[in-house]
Design goal:
- The chain contains nine helices and nine strands.
- It is of the alpha/beta class and 323 residues long.
- The chain has one domain: Alpha/Beta hydrolase fold, catalytic domain (Rossmann fold), CATH 3.40.50.1820.
- Helix 3 packs across helix 4.
- The longest helix has 16 residues.
- It starts with a helix and ends with a strand.
Length: 323
């Protein structure tokens, strides 16, 4: 009832240029400021919530450049890596059909996980991952050690386990399939990773693992910002807001958000796995990516002809990293 009331109030409220108004078209649902050539799909943390989607829309719209519109995804309750990811992909498709030429992704916590899982399908201009989960097997062990932290997530974890069992997959293999690090080979776009070193909910080792995987595939445009903070990161306040603004501006000024050359070499299969490039599955396995949409992502190998990239092959960038 609360969600319905919120939607009705927003539908009939006066709309300003940067207001976040309810959006539901072609199956995509969320809150949108204005559809522009350049858009950011924002994905909030926590469980499914229209209120959180609206609030996250307001936060993100306050820090992105004026020439960006914001679409905050109101994702449905879902097992991890399933419908929630498909809905992010659908939002990008709808925005593109409505004129968006470049789409970036920004996600916090659970939203960071969704953004990373959806990105290989969306092929975004950039991804900003704030304290997102990247290795579900490791997070599952963390969940079992600290049940009080995750008491609100028990139903989601159970639903994820049930889907794995229904699909006839062993738990360990299923967790690998639902982990963003498994698809690092498809992440050839600029990525900013932000994480607090005092985070007890999603340990910052999750971000370090993603950085390690991305370095294997030589994504030369990955930035890591670690700073002393817990899981409650305020992305609309310094220093995080400044880092995000600088990252987006750098992408616009240095490379352009309409597609930027990142990797000079073709990606290889993940170590110890054969078959499809980047997803760590064998030829007779579809992988998590194969369950979303009709097309399996293909590697887009883009050469580098910009002078700004000279001498930076294989370089990973770290801002304010604690050792």
């Amino acid at each position: 009832m609360g969600t319905v009331l919120l939607i009705l109030l927003l539908l009939f409220a006066p709309v300003k240029a940067q207001d976040c108004s309810f959006f539901m078209q072609e199956g995509a649902r969320g809150f949108v400021t204005q559809i522009k050539d350049k858009m950011v799909i924002a994905i909030h943390g926590g469980l499914s919530s229209a209120q959180k989607s609206f609030e996250f829309c307001k936060k993100v719209s306050s820090i992105v450049p004026d020439d960006f519109g914001v679409a905050s995804l109101d994702f449905s309750p879902s097992p991890l890596g399933k419908e929630e990811v498909a809905e992010a992909v659908l939002m990008a498709k709808v925005l593109r059909r409505k004129g968006a030429k470049a789409i970036g992704l920004i996600g916090y916590s659970h939203g960071g996980y969704i953004a990373l899982m959806a990105a290989p399908y969306i092929k975004p201009a950039f991804v900003i991952d704030i304290a997102g989960m990247t290795d579900l097997a490791d997070m599952y062990r963390h969940f079992l050690k600290h049940p009080n932290i995750f008491k609100n997530w028990i139903s989601t974890v159970n639903a994820t386990e049930a889907v794995c069992a229904k699909e006839g997959k062993e738990e360990a293999a299923c967790m690998v399939e639902l982990s963003p690090i498994t698809y690092a080979g498809f992440m050839d776009f600029p990525i900013l990773i932000i994480h607090g070193t005092l985070d007890a909910t999603v340990p910052y080792s999750q971000s370090l693992k993603l950085m390690e995987k991305l370095s294997i595939f030589r994504n030369r445009k990955t930035w890591l910002f670690l700073f002393p903070a817990d899981h409650s990161i305020e992305l609309d306040k310094p220093p995080v807001s400044s880092i995000i603004k600088s990252f987006i501006s750098w992408e616009e000024e240095g490379y352009g958000v309409y597609g930027s050359p990142t990797n000079q070499k073709e990606h290889k299969a993940l170590p110890g796995k054969g078959g499809s490039k980047g997803n760590g599955t064998s030829d007779n396995q579809s992988g998590a990516l194969g369950t979303i949409g009709k097309e399996q992502p293909t590697m887009e190998v883009r050469g580098n002809n910009t002078k700004k990239d000279e001498g930076r092959a294989g370089q990973t960038n770290s801002i304010g990293q604690d050792h």
